[in-house]
Design a protein that fits this description.
Elements (H helix, E strand, L loop, with lengths): L6 H5 L17 H7 L4 E8 L4 E6 L4 E6 L6 E7 L2 E5 L2 H8 L8 E3 L7 E8 L12 E4 L7 H8 L7 H13 L3 H4 L7 E9 L6 E4 L8 E6 L3 E7 L19 E7 L23
Antiparallel strand pairs: 1-13, 2-12, 3-11, 3-13, 4-5, 4-9, 4-12, 6-7, 7-11, 8-9, 9-10
The structure holds zinc ion.
Amino acid sequence: MTQPPDADARRAVAPVICYPTDTLPAPDMAFYGAVRAGLTKVGEVTVPAREARCAEIRAGQVFRITSVEGPQVGDLNLWNLSDLSERFFSGKTRALHGTHVTTGERLWSSFPHLRPMATITADTLGWYGIDGFGGSVHDVIGTRCDPYTHNLLSGGQYHHCCHSNLTRALADHLGIPRAEAEPHIHDVLNVFMCTGFTRDTGQYFMKASPVRPGDYLEFFAEIDLLACLSACPGGDCSSEHSSDTAACHPLLIEVFDPAPGSLDGWSSPPPNGYDRSHGA
Ligand SMILES: [Zn+2]
């Protein structure tokens, strides 16, 4: 393919960060530290391997996703508990925070709300950073494993992809048909999953998660939340998903009340301030 004479010069233009985070309201980590200084556990849900389960978390509570028994990744969906049209916005979270998230970063909700749904308050895998392959943990790159892509690439009918697990769990939790639940399933936070893009071909890759039993990712609920977590059939995602061949383990969701008095003066974030007139 022919190149323009200034091709090298065009490639040499330095990148600029799309969304400079110095104008993003900074989370008050001292506040979250006070909240988690005296947590009281008030509930837990065990997510069986290759299944999903829901949990309701009130604004101001803390929830924690913990690896138990063995290395396992989880696919997380979040909704506003009282309005399922407000849901986790993986793409904008990625644009604001990068491809992977950790302590002090937030999970943002869909338009027109675009507000923090949850703030990450602890991450025992925060030490991992970015490895030599460009991989890191807790990604907002991937969508979720699903039976449609599996059918496209491999044929067949597999029913325990995260998409189906989340669909079943949401339907069961809300008492609605699966066909009604499915459109609510959205792109996930891949908890504990280690992923990246290959530098040479730009392809999405996964590798064995560094998670070990006892590791956790912890969140402060900024609004009332319905969470749904799937224990991915990929297990630690070291080889394949969309089948029952990988070793899989449960995941634990724990819900905590904040330290007494720690929410004084705090209020749940309002929806985004744009007036929605779109210039009309
Ligand atoms: Zn999955």
